[in-house]
Amino acid sequence: MIIKEWNAIKKGQLAPVYLLYGEEEYLLHETKQLLIQHVVSEEEMDFNFSLHDLADEDTLEAAIEDAESFPFMGEKRLVFVEGAMFFTAEKKKDSKQSTEVLEAYLASPAPYTVLVIHVPAEKLDERKKITKLTKKTASVIEAKKLTVNDIKGWIKSKVADHRLQIEDEAVEKLTVLAGTNLFMLAGEIEKLALYADGADMIRHEDVVLLTPKSVENNVFDLIEFTLNGRTGQAIELYHDLIRQKEEPLKLLALLSGQFRLIYQVKNMSGKGFSQQQIASRLKVHPFRVKLAGQHAAKLSEDHLKTIMLSLAECDLALKSSSGRKDMILEMFLTKLPALSR
Questions:
Q1: Closest Cα to residue 226, out of 265, 268, 270, 259?
Q2: Strand, helix or coil for residue 298
Q3: What's the CA gap between 262 and 211, in Å, rounded?
Q4: pTM above 0.85?
Q5: In this structure, are strands 139-143 and 113-119 parallel, antiparallel, or unpaired?
Q6: Which of 99, 117, 163, 172 is surrounded by the fewest CB atoms within 10 Å?
Q7: What is the mean pLDDT of residues 63-71?
Q8: pLDDT (tens digit per residue) in 81-115
Q9: Which DSSP state fits 140?
Q10: Which structural domains are found in the chain, ordered by start?
């Protein structure tokens, strides 16, 4: 994780250049917000903060010119460069920009400026001269997708920012109910912290009371109920989702995606792949692989093929029917227990 870099920023231990990349948008967002908070004051934002988007007609030359300008009515300037795709192997518009001006700047960065370069990509092209040079000079922050354990640690850290603690059972429940999207989890933690005003601990019952389930988790419950013979509960939950204005076609897409993942996990597990390897190959979060594996253990490949064929038929019926579309998916849920035996 990038807690070490965050702590350094909070202490005012600032690097002259930051290179940000990775696929976890929340961590990138938080890093940028921390830098804004600790480099320039709110009163200085108009004078000492600038943003250059290379995907939107801005140039690297203009950004470096800004970085070399003295701060006005303050000690530091903060310059953001967005969309720096020339650090990757992708052929994008800005990849044609000359990096010589940045190379020259990196040789002697302005001591009064913090230059932040964001590469909106999962990986950097390590073969490129500019990548090698920047990694030697800059503080490189990679925002990787977090593992399940990392997310639990992140939740505890986020709660600690509110001078609170959280029960382990509450952490577990929060990830089950809210999923693993850090933006959503951060919002739920803010809500729980407000509710805990005057207390020192966020408890399991607080999470159950205040945290709504994501649609994806409700779909997981639909599958769980039907596979365990609790069709009545599945139908009741489905009716609740329809009352909440969830579209049958959207729910079907989520169901189809989940069963497709269950099939892939079962197939790959049978070939000896670990959960982490499966998550990496399928580019899904390990937590989703873990949940899919629990369902995969209850179903044979033949059952899964039959279910996916039935889902395809349901999709065709939903897209071609002019009648009550909610009934089509309800019929599928009713017969799902028989398809899984």
A1: 259
A2: coil
A3: 26
A4: no
A5: unpaired
A6: 163
A7: 95
A8: 999 999 998 765 544 567 999 999 999 999 999 99
A9: E
A10: 3-143 (3.40.50.300), 148-210 (1.10.8.60), 215-339 (1.20.272.10)
